């Protein structure tokens, strides 16, 4: 499809950074606009990956299910962003489920179209490499924290990472994290008891305020300091 709205949407995507408008116009002709309701999945773990998704509005939760069916929330992503690109590049099944946490508007580009666009406009591949390198850097940072941090520091790190990503993407009320104790337990791999105990400590020192289905960050600088402290707090 092609429209002025589609062109503006795609211009905001890092994947198409530094491309001239006339090129974006041609890309818009191949992108398929889709709308999803909160709770719907863009794709499921283990299914074949034939397309990538350019999220232009809304929030996505990335979920992974273990061999015994246990769920782990890997990440939350905010528009503008890209999801589903790994399966398109590698031809392997989806490694996780991408579920809409809010209403989502996105553009879908199928593998054969993406290959054609990449051949015509090599800048797209450079942009994708930059996106993947940034994610790898974040993954390495997460692995370091998982290895050396105690449970409380890891929870502080998780909260601060969510806050930083929401702030970077200009999410409204970015200091109000829409997560529950159970969400944090699934994401951090800690028990709900540990989550509750840590959040109580953070409340006592004025760093956060917990609400039903939401945690409000009151002091981001102190939270960052706690997230980087490998000792107890």
TrEMBL record:
Keywords recorded for this protein, A-Z: DNA-binding, Transcription, Transcription regulation
Classification of source organism: Bacteria, Thermotogati, Deinococcota, Deinococci, Deinococcales
Coiled coil: none
One GO CC term on file: cytosol
Superkingdom assignment: Bacteria
Limits of the Cyclic nucleotide-binding domain: 15-117
One Pfam family recorded for the sequence: HTH_Crp_2
Gene3D superfamilies found in the cross-reference section: Jelly Rolls, Winged helix-like DNA-binding domain superfamily/Winged helix DNA-binding domain
Organism (species): Deinococcus cellulosilyticus (strain DSM 18568 / NBRC 106333 / KACC 11606 / 5516J-15)
GO terms for MF: DNA binding; DNA-binding transcription factor activity
Domain HTH crp-type positions: 149-221
Protein name as catalogued: Crp/Fnr family transcriptional regulator
InterPro entries: cNMP-bd_CS (IPR018488), cNMP-bd_dom (IPR000595), cNMP-bd_dom_sf (IPR018490), Env_Response_Regulators (IPR050397), HTH_CRP (IPR012318), RmlC-like_jellyroll (IPR014710), WH-like_DNA-bd_sf (IPR036388), WH_DNA-bd_sf (IPR036390)
């Amino acid at each position: 499809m092609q429209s002025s709205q589609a062109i503006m949407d795609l211009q905001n995507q890092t994947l198409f950074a530094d491309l001239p408008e006339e090129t974006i116009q041609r890309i818009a002709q191949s992108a398929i606009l889709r709308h999803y309701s909160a709770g719907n999945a863009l794709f499921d773990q283990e299914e074949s990956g034939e397309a990538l998704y350019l999220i232009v509005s809304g929030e996505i939760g990335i979920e992974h299910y273990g061999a015994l069916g246990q769920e782990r929330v890997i990440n939350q992503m905010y528009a503008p962003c890209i999801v589903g690109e790994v399966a398109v590049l590698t031809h392997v099944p989806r490694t996780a489920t991408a579920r809409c946490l809010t209403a989502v508007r996105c553009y879908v580009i199928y593998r054969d179209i993406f290959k054609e666009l990449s051949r015509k406009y090599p800048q797209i591949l450079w942009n994708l490499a930059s996106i993947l390198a940034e994610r790898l850097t974040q993954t390495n940072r997460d692995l370091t924290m998982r290895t050396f941090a105690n449970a409380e520091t890891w929870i502080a790190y998780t909260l601060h990472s969510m806050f930083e990503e929401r702030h970077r993407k200009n999410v409204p009320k970015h200091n109000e994290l829409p997560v529950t104790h159970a969400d944090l337990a699934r994401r951090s791999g800690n028990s709900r008891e540990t989550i509750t105990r840590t959040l109580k400590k953070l409340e006592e020192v004025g760093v956060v305020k917990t609400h039903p289905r939401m945690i409000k960050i009151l002091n981001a600088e102190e939270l960052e300091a706690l997230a980087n402290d490998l000792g107890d707090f």
